[in-house]
Amino acid sequence: MSLTGTGELVAAACDAGRGVGAFNVITVEHAEGIVAGGELAGAPVILQISQNAVRYHDGRVEPLAAACARLAETAGVPVALHLDHVDDLDLLHRAADAGFGSVMYDASRLGYADNVAATRSAADWAHANGLWLEAELGEVGGKDGVHSPTARTKPAEAAEYVSATGVDALAVAVGSSHAMTVKAARLDIDLVGEIRAAVPVPLVLHGSSGVLDEDLRQAVAAGLTKVNVGTQLNVAFTAAVRDALADPGLTDPRKYLRPARDGVAAAVAGILRTISGG
Ligand code: G3H
Ligand code: ZN
């Protein structure tokens, strides 16, 4: 299969009242595990590389993006490629040439007016360059290590923001927080429904690792579409590595990376079954 557009996958899921999983890629093994998880569940996946992961690769996004794009070609399910949580304009402007079909431009730390101005300009650039653009209103906590699931997106402001910026999807603050290693966050399902009714574009949940499965299911039923997951995959990846390295004689990386990749695939399949409805 060839690489699919994020917009296409999100629109199809939104129309069908399903969720679509977007999973953070740090290494090639993450990408392989995520695609394998999609194949296990028989559901499409969005591979997303965050600006932080690009920093880990010393600013070189192109090699990992190219590997993801080549993986999509041999995948048994549709795969899209998304650049996540970008606030560096130089990186944003490299997205199309690097093979991404979509970007999340993150101006959520700014006040409302500055967020609108920066995001409008990013959306104009993205659309002129054939990219689908997601943005965030009402900062989802945890990006700086501080868990704060208390932020909330206001429905009327969200509607005004989408119209003023021209974004294709909106990330909302409804109770989740980034980088949670246990499922303890409860979502404001009524608020999801209110934002859904007020806003004409698909909604995105960040920090989904910390959300209880039942809340994820209900949020999708109430109108959330793109479900972003990162930490939960790293919990599975690292547990498998730690377990394998209990053998002090082990030196071949394949002996610990294979179980890590399998752990990611199992986690992805589980999440996809939770959000796929039916
Ligand atoms: O944008 C990526 C997601 O929001 C990942 O959040 O690591 O808490 O699952 P998470
Ligand atoms: Zn996020």
Features:
single chain, alpha/beta, 8-stranded parallel barrel, binds glyceraldehyde-3-phosphate, globular, 278 residues, binds zinc ion, 11 helices
Layout of helices and strands, plus pairs?
Blueprint: H1 6-16, E1 20-24, H2 28-41, E2 45-50, H3 51-56, H4 62-74, E3 79-86, H5 89-94, E4 102-105, H6 112-128, E5 132-137, H7 155-165, E6 169-172, H8 189-198, E7 203-205, H9 213-222, E8 224-229, H10 231-244, H11 253-275
Parallel strand pairs: 1-2, 1-8, 2-3, 3-4, 4-5, 5-6, 6-7, 7-8
Helix pairs in contact: 2-4, 2-11, 7-8, 8-9, 10-11
Zinc ion is lined by residues 85, 178, 206-207, 228.
Descriptive overview:
This protein is α/β, with parallel strands linked by helices. Helices cover 49% and strands 15% of the residues. An 8-stranded parallel beta barrel has the order 1-2-3-4-5-6-7-8, surrounded by 9 helices. The longest helix has 23 residues. Bound molecules: glyceraldehyde-3-phosphate and zinc ion. Zinc ion binds next to loops. Glyceraldehyde-3-phosphate binds next to strand 3, strand 8 and helix 10.
